[in-house]
Amino acid sequence: MKKLSFVLSLTNDDNDYQQEQATAADRAAKRLGVEIKIVHANNDAVQQSQQLLDFIQADAALRPDAIMFEPAGGTAFPQVARAATSAGMGWVVLNHDPDYLSSLRGNSRIPVFSISSDHVEVGKIQGQQFAALLPQGGSILYIEGPGHSAAAKERTAGMMKTKPSNIAVKTLRGNWTEDSAYRSVSSWLRLSTSQKTPIDLVGAQDDSMAAGARKAFAEIAAGDRERWLKIPFTGCDGLPRTGQSWVRTGLLAATIYIRPNAGLAVEMLTEAMRAGSQPAERKLIEPESVPTLAQLAAKPGTEGKPLRSTRAGA
Hints:
Radius of gyration: 21 Å
Distance between the termini: 68 Å
Number of strands: 14
Shape: elongated
Structural class: alpha/beta
CATH topology of the largest domain: Rossmann fold
Strand content: 15-25%
Strand order of the largest sheet: 2-1-3-4-5-12
Oligomer: single chain
Order of helices and strands: EHEHEHEHEHEHEHEEHHEHEHEEHE
Number of domains: 2
CATH architecture of the largest domain: 3-Layer(aba) Sandwich
Helix content: 40-55%
Number of helices: 12
């Protein structure tokens, strides 16, 4: 029997979650005896689309049996998806819920499905974490993912549903990497208006961006640096070696464990292709608060007056 071969396209290789996605997929492929090629899009949707087309348009003998990918942009490439399934290739979308899956599946047995974390629930948990950390209310500097990202939009929507009305939110944007959040926060700190903005907590939509924010605050003048780094920082992803470790050491007050799903995608795809079956159209994976919301609520709330930022180097 021909050995199955898959392609996995991830958004980047600078983010701990994306790195763990690659590791999980590679581990599952070795266990199941399938070949996998992992490529990265460098957060560029155009580049990712062309990468996928190159695999689809390759000679039949070199063409993979299926493509798995996490979209680097705001869409999941419906035209590319049609080209892949027309060529007899499986199609799996990670961490995105495209509306074209049903039409592609039809009566076909070519596996077409999506696996995603419940990003609205991620946001809801984060809003509940903010409430636990700021029981008297306050102001948050909130670092979102890119504006085109469905995951970022859903996390924000969920957070706004559960955060108390006495918590105000100031938003900045990053690109799911430490460096992008560092640059975004550093630029904000240089604005004269930032000096007048009270901040009681810094929340980010992933742990690497929380780390980038901490790095930016650590570079401001010594007296203000100490005050800034005493306020709570939170993130998402909660991987054991990064986010969960940072919670244990106190670098983060809380995170949200979002299980990598690329390994599960390899398992489901392999089983479906070997059995000639069609998996469920969509699968959602539930996130978990780290620490639990009950543990977080049991900790003392942030005390004192809201901190006011100071220009870097001032």
